[in-house]
Amino acid sequence: MKSVTTESRYSSERFQAFLDSVSSLSLEHRFQEWYNVEVAAAIDGCKLRGHEINSETGESLLFLNRSAVLCVPQKGHIAHYPRHLIHCFVDDFRHNGKDENGLVMRAELFSISPAEEQLGWEILCRSEQEVPSVQTNVSRWLRWLNNE
């Protein structure tokens, strides 16, 4: 019983860390409220394993035990993707120079699902200094994807 309580508390702390990350963004009040009410209700009782936030768009990706949840506040969109349908793709352009868009590296989590419902969480890297951060994210993604 004690480990369930510890697990529950740990998940609650992760969810609070997620909400704290969202509150630090420069989002309109209605989007902040959407996260605190709608997203919180949608994932109530789920064990949050981690999260990522796009600070430019306010979108977020939540990692649960066996799935991911994409939150798009501008559309009021919450999409759920089973982990077994998600893949990781990395393009490393460092050995051949930057690509035509000036990218050094690109990493993406994507889903195999209908076109209108696909997950496409992407990190773009335009300088060598950003590479370790992208590698850290990809490592975290792969641990989550391969976790049994």
Describe the structure concisely for a colleague.
The protein has 148 residues and is an alpha+beta fold. Helix content is 35%, strand content 29%.
Describe the model.
By secondary structure, this protein is of the alpha+beta class. It has one domain (about 1-145). The protein is built from three helices and seven strands. A hairpin with a 2-residue loop joins strand 2 and strand 3 (about 65-70). The radius of gyration is 16 Å and the shape is globular. The two termini are about 20 Å apart.
**Rounded to an integer, what's the Rg over CA atoms?**
16 Å
Q: Describe the main β-sheet briefly.
A: 4 strands, antiparallel
Helix segment tally: 3
Mean pLDDT: 88
Q: Helical percent range?
A: 25-40%
